[in-house]
Each structure stands twice: as structure tokens, then as C-alpha cells.
Known about the structure:
Elements: H1 19-23, H2 31-42, H3 44-53, E1 59-60, H4 61-68, H5 72-84, E2 88-93, E3 96-101, H6 103-123, H7 128-139
Antiparallel strand pairs: 1-3, 2-3
Helix pairs in contact: 2-5
Domain HTH arsR-type: 26-121
Pfam families: HTH_5 (PF01022)
Keywords: DNA-binding, Transcription, Transcription regulation
Amino acid sequence: MEGNLTNWSPMRERGAGPALLYYFGVTRNNEEAASGLFAALAHSGRREILRYLRDRDFVRAGDIGAALAIGPSTLSGHLKVLRQAGLVESRRRGTEIQYRLRMSLVDEAILALMALRREQEATGPDDPEDASSATDEREEPIR
Length: 143
């Protein structure tokens, strides 16, 4: 699922769809994988696990649960989603399973999003109506 920023372009094929998905090699045939990545990041509990793993190398599942006060069943479900999305990797040591963050994928996702942002700022919105609706949304007070 990892890409190469030196060869990255906003669209790999004509009419391909969202550039970030194509950067990660997502095609119409495997959009489900990209959906899994974004769904994994959408849950605050999973983001908390990623933050915890950020500065650690291969942590036992029990230690993650204890540090974050997450029950074993809930933690297992979250780790499964994160592993399937490619955000964490696991290894077995005897009866324990240890996890760590896959920084390469996280770094590449951040760089790809930053590249898209720079491109959008340079070229402006594709649809002028999108720009006006985005501006209107930002002017609304946050409640």
C-alpha cells in the first residue's frame, strides 16, 4: 500500500478519482482498503492507541490496554482494525502479541496529504461553487 513520493502525481490515470487514493495504489478494485485506512483513523480510541505507540517499539497488547484503560475485548477489536488498515504491525512472542506503529505508512500519508494541500492552494478549487461553500462553512461559529 506504500507509494513513492518521487513518482507521485495527482492523477495516475485519466479520470482516476481522488489523488491520495491513487497515490497509495488504490483503484476502483481495492477502494475498500482505502476506506479501511480512513475508517481506522476516524475512531478516537484508535487514534489514542496510535499516539501511544508513536514513541514505543513493540508493546504488549496488555500494556497498551493498561496504559489507556481499554478492556481486552475492545482493545483487540481496535488493534485488528489498525492492523488490517496497515497502521500497526504485530509480532508474536510466545503467548503474547506485541504491536508497533508503522511510521512509514503514517509518514507517507502525511506527506501525500501535504502535497495535495500545496497543489490545491496553487491551483485553487476545481469547482468555484466548492470554494464558496467551503468559505461559508468556515464562517459559521463553532459550537
